[in-house]
Amino acid sequence: MAAQTAATTTRESLGSLTLMAYTFTSVLDADTFASGLSTNVVNYWVSGQGNPVTQASAGFNVTNSSGTFTFYPGEDSLAATLFVLARV
Predict the structure, then answer these.
(1) Fewest Cβ atoms closer than 10 Å to its Cβ: which of 25, 36, 49, 58?
(2) 85, 43 in Cβ contact below 8 A?
(3) Owning domain of residue 67
(4) CATH number for the domain harbouring residue 62
């Protein structure tokens, strides 16, 4: 487990919400990312990039606790983009 830093961050206004896209070059199981968004997060999802070795390793999950996200990729070292809708 390690603290991640986003390689790039994109921010778009969607009316009363803001969509943030955080791109990571490599994510390992249980890595964390502190977004600084606290309880302003409305929704979030993650998309892994790359070709997993097996179908069983193709999944990717993320959890949120007060703006700190924990990654659970099906396979280590995948690039990923975390999308977050928040009130900021």
Answers:
(1) 36
(2) yes
(3) 8-86
(4) 2.60.40.3940
Burial class (CB in 10 A: 0-12, 13-18, 19+), 24: buried
Asked whether residue 2 is assigned to any structural domain, the reply reads: no
- Model confidence, pTM: 0.89
Q: What is the pLDDT of residue 59?
A: 78
pLDDT tens, position by position, 20-35: 999 999 999 999 999 9
- 66, part of any domain: yes
The distance between the two most distant Cα atoms of the chain, rounded to a whole number of Å, is: 40
Tally the domains of the chain: 1
In a domain, 47, yes or no: yes
Q: What is the pLDDT of residue 75?
A: 78
Query: In one letter, which amino acid is 39?
Result: T
